[in-house]
Fold each of these.
Amino acid sequence: MHYLDNAATTVVDPELADICRAAMTELFGNPSSLYTPGAKSEMAIDKAREQVASTLGVTAAEITFTACGSESDNIALLGAAKKAKHWATNLVATGFEHPAVYKTLDALGKEGWEIRFIAPDAEGRISEQALLDAVDGKTGLVTFMFVNNEIGTMQDVLGLAQKVRAKAPRAAIHVDGVQGWCKHPLNLKNSAIDSFALSGHKMHCPKGIGALYLRKNYKIDPAFCGGGQERGLRPGTENVPYIVTLGAAAEKYGSTITRRLAKVKELNPKLRDGLAAINGVIINSPIDASPYVLNFSIPGVRSETMLHFLESKEVYVSSGSACSKGAASHTLAAMGLPPERIDGALRVSFCESSQPEDIDALLQGLQEGLATLARKR
């Protein structure tokens, strides 16, 4: 099997799966209980909080555990909007956000907020100046991505956040960091970023665990009500086994970011060169995008058709964001690309276990697919 859809989800690390299984039976106590089994669970959560915090250069007290990156985004956005509603009138975002962000903003727009989306250019890049120009004294929230999930475009989130803070000191600043966490180095200590979302299943954990960084002394209004767990921001009995697993993933992969990134930086150019040799292929990811993600189009061949042909060869890629379930790419549409290029788009996404042989299989599958589909037309 040649699995090249790691931006959708990653294979669960067997070592992490063992840690999760052990926690399910050994850490069964409710962390809110006052007796010893509960205290053991609470201590395990505290350790995991420290492990996740260390990957971002922040303190354990600034980490809130959630069910996923999408929930983290929702808590951050809804909480910031509720807090600012008495003085702010608009929210600013990059125009190629993940559905967890842009659909939440759309919902806030229906409540009366003015939503200012800054579209990427045809190369998939966001103009920092255009985003800053959209920010004013009535901006309650500015949100932008660390790594775009469809084409891999990277933002200088630290620098951009600093510029936003200088122009709008009261605005909350949120970053969707799901595709960049533990893949690209990032230290949030003393940064202007107020909140940062991350997800475990993009880093070899089971699906169903994520976290939200909230800067010390930065307060948002809770989006949910319940028993007060996670400082009242994400109430509900904590998922101890998955939290422990996320902590273990943070410790294992947080220390190898540079080495894993160097490996992927060798794979990405190999794929780019191979695609350049295939007639009609157009690469959509900018050259300075994250090497973990490469998006390209074959105009005239629907992505779903090619995706299933590749599947028959046990090569697995995506036609866009997995959360969109095959719908036309929101990101490519925001870039203003023509329909035939959007309809023929595929996304490849690597992880540290990806091999050159996976790229060879993909390129061969594309060549065979083009020849086979051409005969059928």
Note: Residues 12 and 369 are 30 Å apart (CA to CA).
Amino acid sequence: MADNKTYYYLKLKENFFDSEDMKLLQGMKDGYLYSDILLKLYLISLSQDGRLMYRGIIPYTPEMVATVTRHQVGTVEKAMDVLGKMGFIEILDNGAIYMLDIQNFIGQSSTEADRKREYRNLINTEKKRICGNSNVSDVGQMAGQMSKQKSDKSTPEYREQSKEIREESLESREQSTEIFAVSKDTVSRTDVQRAVEEWNSLAVYGLRPVSKLTSGTKRAKCLNARIKEYGIDEVLAAIERIKNSDFLKGNNKSGWMITFDWFVLPNNFPKVHDGYYENSTPQPQNGGSQSHVEQFADFARGWAGDE
């Protein structure tokens, strides 16, 4: 019987522990415990492309990290502080943890440059979404200030300097490996992840989040098709429009709420994308007939079931 499971693995070079960063880390008091926590976080984050957020929406607390790494909470708190200062991880204001070097250890070398660039863009995009600021450098400064306020022991200058060195090294490696172009028909895992995470942010309005997106299923194929057709930015914009629609959030006669599987269908997505359901759409007066919005939704619900 064929094995259809997806396996994730970490590729470490034989001199991994001989790097200056790892020598400095393990040279500290309890440094070997910190490096063990680091490797376990690398492995846990593999299925999310280096991003740590439980089920995609719940930030990992020190207690949760202690549970999954089998270390004391106090040790985990010290380790996270050290790993952040040394540039191994970055913790965003929403609690998402990014393993900054993990793109060196996963995937194929032919796609390495593109994957690393997408990963850095993903982090910056999430920063901008959290802070509501389009200037990436300003967001970086704000994140540094927040970290400094949280801990008197934090040293933003050291962290920023370490990050700049790593990014310069990353750019140098990208120049030597950027040989192959990604096909226009390819939808990256990063784009799919961004769309799912943006959808799951609607859970605060009571909408059902996506807990599973298996390759080859109807919902996965539909999402890939919408990303190819419109581009990831337009898909994210369409999800954002849902926030401006009381109707899609359940404020209608039947109490129906939009679902992910309904949203990605080819006949439904354009309506949401074009703002068909937004609050500015005229609604019927009390006692009047159904609006064209409700009529369309009733028709669509009749044949578009959730997966």
Note: Residues 21 and 27 are 10 Å apart (CA to CA).
Amino acid sequence: MRLENVKPSGAMNGELPPLELLRSFEAAARRLSFTLAAGELHLTQSAVSRQIQQLEASLGVLLFERRHRALSLTEAGGVLQRAVTDSLERLRDATARVRASAAPRQVAITTTPGFASLWLIPRLVRFTGSHPQVDVRVSATLDVLDLERSRIDLAVRFVPIDRGVGAALFEESVVPLCAPQLAAALHAPSDLSGLTLLTIEYPDHSEAPTTDWEPWLKVMGLADLRMKSTLRFTQYADAVAAAVAGQGVVIGRLPLLQDLVRDGRLVAPLGEGAASRRGYFVEMSKRAGSNRDAQDFAQWLRDEAEAARRT
């Protein structure tokens, strides 16, 4: 094909050639081979050759010198290659930025059902109010999930103090709590024997109905305490709800239940609590290192815990 035989056909007066022609040209100009360009673009060699001819015809100029088993760019081809390469790179960068900005912002957290329902969820509106674009996914479970495998940003772990990993939120203290109408029957720990025990049923402690009471019972020297009757629950929040309804006495985990004590729905007639030597810790996953919203969420948890200690 000689230059004088190439006639402009259509793409005149500033009209841009179709993008697929420019992509084929960029690949052929970079590889200096229609065959290699075709393999890269998943086209046939003849399709790429036709697209280049169509582009040359639309521009009215040759872009390649076609030699025996070799290609080279003409002067016009070199000018177009620089412009097309720069333009496609800018398009790729802009597309990546647009996709990144359109990606949903999310924080995934795992924690115990008790912490989620009694401490986290009542406060969560303060985080979502200051971060309205962020979706928060809460996995409330007693299972210890692998953060990386489960694609979770952070965990609030409830563990013994000497096994804590990450930033400490607060240490737990425990004390019997009940509704105000039951408080008159409780003057000493021995009075518990006349009331209903509200407790959690753990699958691995089915024969020990006071497992969640053990830290307090140990401190008080009441390991053999027996109460009038027992109501067992699979979720701590349900046992707390039963206590608020006046159905018995629950072991209160503070500060999880501090708001219920503060507003008078639950009272501690037997005095202050005992340290359980357990606490809540914030553990961050590796993926949270690239999630600014997860880092903000972890800081928000620490700020909320500090504010709760001051009240």
Note: The first helix runs from residue 19 to 31.
